[in-house]
């Protein structure tokens, strides 16, 4: 009788995938880290590294905001939109300055800071650029409001130490008696976003083995975050999420939940019950 096939080691496969596709090149006075993570135009996201004496300045070259403008999103004309950007990058150790997302690093903290910058860029891409037309609202704010309405005790936007780097967590929910539930939001679920989230779970599974790891997928068409007057909740409709993305997430998550099911008893039990 043949032995059952072993499940693939997704952690090893993911790290090998990263190593094979990350390249550093010289560009003028800067080094540029080319990554396999895609921007809205399906080009690899680049991280620029500028020497600043004993430190390195890491930034996106202004491309994240530039892409927003190219897509017709006039973020420079609304304080509300700027506030949404600041909110999206909260907890990533990244600042928004001169239309660039940036952070500083030493040689020792470079991997951590690069990871935080990529997370901030991905969050902004998830909010506005992954869907057409732009119907993504501020998913974090909606979930936060939902938790507040249900008197859930949580800490928001907190970095948690993993095996190699810290990982920004959207919500850490206290369950009492030293137990906790980690809640990761995917505003625009995609295979790329699922891989990035799973990498965080792989690392946190080692450093916080007792914690529940819950992913909350946005599978609804939300009001447009870029409109000053958003449409009422009654106009929201569901949208499909790829089974491949769900399968990747299920390998390392305690639960994978869909926002459209937020009023179901099972959803409430798994998220804040």
Structure description:
The protein has 273 residues and is α+β, with helices and mostly antiparallel strands. It has 2 domains: 10-129, 2-Layer Sandwich (Yope Regulator, Chain: A), CATH 3.30.1460; 139-271, Trna Endonuclease, Chain: A, domain 1. The protein is built from 8 helices and 11 strands. It has helices at residues 10-21, 63-70, 79-88, 110-129, 139-149, 191-207, 243-250, 265-271; strands at 23-27, 30-38, 44-52, 55-59, 95-97, 100-105, 154-161, 166-176, 179-186, 212-217, 255-258. The strands form 2 sheets. A 6-stranded antiparallel β-sheet has the order 1-2-3-4-6-5, covered by helices on one side. A hairpin with a 4-residue loop joins strand 7 (154-161) and strand 8 (166-176). Helix 6 (191-207) packs parallel to helix 7 (243-250). The chain is globular, with a radius of gyration of 19 Å. Residues 129-137 and 228-235 have low confidence and may be disordered.
